[in-house]
Every structure is written in structure tokens, then in C-alpha cells.
């Protein structure tokens, strides 16, 4: 799942510094893992990966065109106080990722 999220970050235009925040890892650790020297992922890390993949899945259901789904992450959104989903997620807490995922799940008619 880590490799899939690294690819997702590329599609979203997420920098390594931002990726480290989203995954709650030191930037150097993220860089090593991204290069293939992956270490052990703890429960929080697994939850972060799961939420990021859930966000991706919901966006792919909502938007037929992949580019629109990838662009949505950076677009301003009234539901987030005119901030982007990425801005919200960069708060760095697991609950920030969960907030975006819950919003998208509700939008797509999920939970």
C-alpha cells in the first residue's frame, strides 16, 4: 500500500515534505522508504495509508476523469472553509485525513 500512496502523491503533486507530514514521518525516513528502503509501518501509519487510499477511491467514484479527481485535492472547497482538502490533510493529524475521507464518503453516498 505504501508504494501505491507514493504514486498517488505524485499524481496529486505532493512534495516530499508534504508527504512526510501526511504520513507522520521524518522527511529523511520518507525519502529512504520512497527509494525502496521501507521500514516497519506502525498502526497509525497503516491507518494513514488506508485513509489516503480511501480518499483516492472516493474521488475515482465521484469523478469519471482521473485528472479532475487529482486536481480536486488542491482545489478550494467551501466545505473546508475555502481551503483545499490537501490544506486540511496537511494539519498532520490522522483525524485530518479522516475528515476529508468522511466528507468524500458522504458525497459519494457511502457512509
Automatic annotation (TrEMBL):
It holds the Pfam family Xre-like-HTH. Residues 2-54 form the Antitoxin Xre-like helix-turn-helix domain. GO terms for molecular function: DNA binding. Residues 58-110 form the Antitoxin Xre/MbcA/ParS-like toxin-binding domain. This is Uncharacterized protein. It comes from Bradyrhizobium jicamae.
Amino acid at each position: 500500500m505504501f508504494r501505491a500512496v507514493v504514486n498517488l502523491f505524485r499524481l496529486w503533486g505532493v512534495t516530499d515534505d508534504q508527504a512526510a507530514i501526511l504520513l507522520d514521518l521524518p522527511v529523511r525516513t520518507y525519502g529512504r522508504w520512497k527509494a525502496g528502503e521501507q521500514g516497519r509501518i506502525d498502526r497509525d501509519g497503516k491507518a494513514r495509508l488506508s485513509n489516503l487510499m480511501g480518499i483516492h477511491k472516493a474521488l475515482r467514484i465521484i469523478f469519471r476523469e482521473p485528472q479532475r479527481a487529482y486536481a480536486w485535492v488542491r482545489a478550494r472547497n467551501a466545505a473546508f472553509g475555502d481551503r483545499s482538502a490537501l490544506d486540511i490533510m496537511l494539519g498532520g493529524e490522522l483525524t485530518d485525513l479522516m475528515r476529508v475521507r468522511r466528507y468524500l464518503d458522504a458525497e459519494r453516498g457511502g457512509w
